[in-house]
Amino acid sequence: MASDALLEEFEVLESIYPTELSKLSERDIEIEVEPEEIEEGADKLLLKLTVHYPEEYPDVLPDLSLEPAEGDLEEQDIETLLNDLRTVGEENVGMAMTFTLVSHLRERLAAIVRENAERKKQKEMEEERRVLEEEEARTRGTPVTLESFLAWKKKFDQELASRKAKEEEEKLKAMTPKEREEYKKAQTRPSGRQLFERDKTLAATDESLVEEGTVSVDFSQYERRKAQEEEEEEEHVEFSDSD
């Protein structure tokens, strides 16, 4: 049977925690404990504190256990909280201590919620920083080295050749057999540039052809012709006067 001191403590606790407290037996109670003064939007956290009062209570510590009811809490955190409660209980041996234990637990839960919120915020900031760095690296591009350029050039040339071959194939498919034959012949003829690169003496040959086709003008013949015409004109004038 519970002592008068314990019954009196139960009455006080039931008035303070009318909805949170459940009496399991004459010496056992369960209280739902939430953090105090948590920020709006913080993660929900709710624990069930079970207290068993030995006959020697309050001269000895009550048996305590914690069970998560809502929210995430590691087993290690549960054990740390129980050790904190036992330390507080030892400081209050000889007195009714349940209210003090619950108040301390609420403070510790509030601290845990704040720590969790801070870790969550730091994690989000790290993720944002990582995404930003990846975006900056993507837009900035990779530094080009000779090796990376040659590798890119080889891949680019292969893709270009493949695309041209595919286009060539599509073009040939659209032609008649005769057109294909003529087209292939035209492709095998060397271009002017190929001829030039094959025999660079062609340029010199062209220059010699230009020189061979040049017409030289003999200005002395022009002068003699002009003098002859003037002489004939003078003779014609003298004949006219004799008439």
From TrEMBL:
Residues 114-142 form a coiled coil. Residues 166-198, 223-243 are annotated as: Disordered. Residues 229-243 have a biased composition (Acidic residues). Signal peptide: none annotated. Residues 166-185 have a biased composition (Basic and acidic residues). It comes from the Eukaryota. Keywords: Coiled coil. The keyword Phosphoprotein does not apply. This is RWD-domain-containing protein. The lineage of its organism: Eukaryota, Fungi, Dikarya, Basidiomycota, Agaricomycotina.
